[in-house]
Amino acid sequence: MKTTGNALRLALAGTLASAVVLGGCGTADQPRQSAGSLTFMSGGGAYLDALDEAFLKPFAKDTGIAVHNDPTLSYAKIKTMVGAGKVTIDVTPAEGYWEIQECGKTLLPLDRTLVDLSDIDPALIQGECGAPLLTYSTAIYYNKEAYPGPDKPVGCRDFFDTAKFPGKRAVRDSAVPNPLIECALVADGVSPDALYPLDLDRAFKKIATIRKDLVFWASGAESTQLMTAGEVAMIHAWNGRAYAAIAEQGAGFAPAYGEAFLIYDTLVVPKGVRDPKAAMKLVDYMLDPARQAKLTSLIPYSPSNKKAVLTGLPAPLQEFLPETNPKVAEGVHVQDQRWWAQNADEVTRRWQAMFQG
Amino acid sequence: MTATLQAERRPGSPAPRVRGDSSAPWLLLLLPALVLLALCFVYPLARLLVASLQDPVPGVGNYTDLLRSQVFRNVLGRTFLTSAIVCLTCFVLGYPYAYLMTVVSRRTRSLLLAVVLIPFWTSLMVRTFSWLVLLQDNGVINDTLAALGVGRLELVRNTTGVTIGMAQVMLPFAVLPMYAVMQKIDRRLLRAAESCGAKPVSAFARIYFPLSLPGVAAGMSITFVVSLGFFITPQLLGSPSNAMLSQLMYTEITQLGKWGYGAAMGFILLATALIILGLVRVASRARPALAGGAK
């Protein structure tokens, strides 16, 4: 019987140990917030560093409210937290379409008594739960080696004209919210000011015409890599990434100007945060024009605040931003996130059928 | 019970046979592992199953929708096909490698082991991006091929790229079990076969290879099952037409918030994988060597 006792004791000890380990798992993810601190969730990397420098550290200094960073941004995670009633993050930047989809479900409506949107570009205020923070656009850049002649590609029409400008085109490997759809319609003759609601039949028919010339990038870093290695003739890429490739890494690409589609990251507060007022205060703090201008000097995104004055930016960067280059500004159209929020599913199904099926 | 315990303690007795009631206290030692499994694996899996049957509406709608979807069926088939290709590649590369490890000196063996394990300790993202840089149209490999007059090949953003990237990740999983079995094979059996008149090739094919099959089966099963869940590698080294199921699941769950649909995809993958492994097991029973019966 002694053996039985030993086995039993060992088993109990082991079970206890695994329970302790599990308990550790459960709490490790949820640092207990001290009163008067906030947690900011983002994707990490250079983006987080810039936000930290421009907003989060100064906020802690000015208000005494410490801001913790959680670099594991995932929409699924936020939804799970809200669903489980255990919300451990207070503020996060989200894409416009997602904010509109989740407004009132996962996200708190913006408290307009605490968050002042009066200087924010009205074209960006598309949902009730988000405070637009910054913008970037998807534009066309071409490989200078691919088109050495006097005729250079301009805008969506030439992006879709493989007879006049042959060669591979790189686009983002994601259906939502991919402005390739808008670009296809413009190339097919729709006026950029009369795009919505998007005619998906027409757009996908147009995309099918260049199907075999398309290659795909999955991450911003990969789009930069495609440009620096000169792998494609044209690319539909984010302006910040094109700047990194062309100005910083010497990629032989140039902007094709013409139509570019602007999207924005918007600050949201999930339902069930411990102190919604403090979270809204941080949101409001991040809309300050001077601090937004500071952000642009740290990372190539444009401010959402119309009063932000961009000074002292390096000359090469100025070429890539609509605020500092009228040639870029001329072609920029704001993507309609309300339409994308409603049609994300439908576009995804068609996209999958065309490319993944 | 007491009698059995005494029997177990008798010196020089054959391997103790723990049977019936007497094993009960020792089975308790499984409890910690079972608790861990139940809470960290079974419970979340059950939650996922419930989600697949309840979200957004109760019923089997997610499953019928999926089975009716051409895209899903194609991607599911491709997921298994890609895993099978990777599995086969790992066998072709890994079998001679594992064999080599059993015949070289101890020092060379350590070196061979290190070579196969170093990638194992390197970040998956770093490795995948490195392959992208190496394999791209203007990459080192293609530059070399062009200089040699072979001409440039399309090595990436297609099945070739995905297979290369995945096979490199999976190679240790194939080599190590094969090596573990091979090193235990008594090489005198080969000499015995040759002394009975077998040519070396035939001695290998009829004696050594069948004895190594348990290792092959173990290595191939792990390689195949783990390959089913790849995400980053096919995303970066393939094109959308190489998409595997985990990529569809990512889109459903993180972008579209359709938990039930994504969960149902996971369950169909799990069920299909279990069926395939079950079939392999049945097949291996028919051939005892595969089931470790090489005694």
Task: Walk me through this protein's architecture.
The complex is a heterodimer of chains A (357) and B (295). Mean pLDDT of chain A is 92; it is low at 24-32. Helix content of chain A is 43%, strand content 16%. In chain A, strand 1, helix 2 and strand 2 form a beta-alpha-beta unit. In chain A, helix 6 crosses helix 7. Chain A folds into 2 domains: 37-135 and 264-323, D-Maltodextrin-Binding Protein, domain 2, CATH 3.40.190.10; 137-262 and 332-355, Periplasmic binding protein-like II (D-Maltodextrin-Binding Protein, domain 2, 3-Layer(aba) Sandwich). With 357 residues, chain A is an alpha/beta fold. Residues 1-16 and 290-295 of chain B have low confidence and may be disordered. Chain B is mostly helical and 295 residues long. Chain B is 73% helix and 0% strand. Chain B has a single domain (45-291), classed as MetI-like (MetI-like fold), CATH 1.10.3720. The chains are: A alpha/beta (357), B mainly alpha (295). At the A-B interface, helix 1, helix 3, helix 8 and helix 14 of A face helix 2, helix 3, helix 5, helix 7 and helix 13 of B.
